[in-house]
Amino acid sequence: MQNCFPINLPTIIDGSDGKISVADSLQNIPFEIKRVYYIYDLQNLNAIRGKHAHKELEQVIFCINGSFKLGLDDGVDKEELIINRRNQGIFLGRGLWHTMTDFSRDCVLLVLASDHYKESDYIRDYDEFMKFIHVFQHDTSQ
């Protein structure tokens, strides 16, 4: 799978006070973090979220409570991952179609993003995504 890899945050055991995992810009997160958001209290556990790719944005997605299924598509390969480890996220690079499904009732997703929200960066149509990928892969192979 292109433009995608696991990010493992260090886990610091703070005695009986629990555990701490730290995400640092440009260290264990491979970009400067400009936006943080989280998704929670999903009323429809059968929802399909995401259903888009980004032209430029990079993200790391974590499940800090519960679990969900992350579907990935780089235009050639498709993969599904169960995300359920609080200290492990998945880097989502540009040009990667992604969906989130099969949410547990207690699911909380945390996303670290490389830029502020820009609707113009989203590719929300799968056919448009495939055209973008063809151009993107051609440009990066030269």
Structure overview:
The protein is mainly β. It has a single domain (4-140), classed as Jelly Rolls. It has 1 helix and 12 strands; from the N terminus they run ββββββββββββα. β2 (11-13) and β3 (19-21) form a beta hairpin. The model has no long low-confidence stretch (mean pLDDT 93).
Q: What distance lies between the first and last C-alpha atoms, to the nearest angstrom?
A: 20 Å
**Under the CATH scheme, which architecture would be assigned?**
Sandwich
**CATH class annotation:** Mainly Beta
Give the SSE string.
Answer: EEEEEEEEEEEEH
Tell me the domain tally: 1
CATH topology: Jelly Rolls
Instruction: Count every helix, treating DSSP H or I runs of 4 or more residues as helices.
Output: 1
The average pLDDT value, as a whole number, equals 93
Poorly predicted sequence stretches spanning 5 or more consecutive residues: none
Structural class: mainly beta
Order of strands in the sheet with most strands: 1-9-6-11-4
Q: Which bin fits the share of residues in helices? A: 10-25%
The Rg value, from CA coordinates, equals: 16 Å
SS elements, strand count: 12
CATH superfamily: Jelly Rolls
Q: Which geometry do the CA atoms define?
A: globular
Largest sheet: 5 strands, antiparallel
Describe this protein with a few key phrases.
single chain, five-stranded antiparallel beta sheet, mainly beta, Jelly Rolls, 12 strands, 11% helix, 1 helix, globular, 142 residues
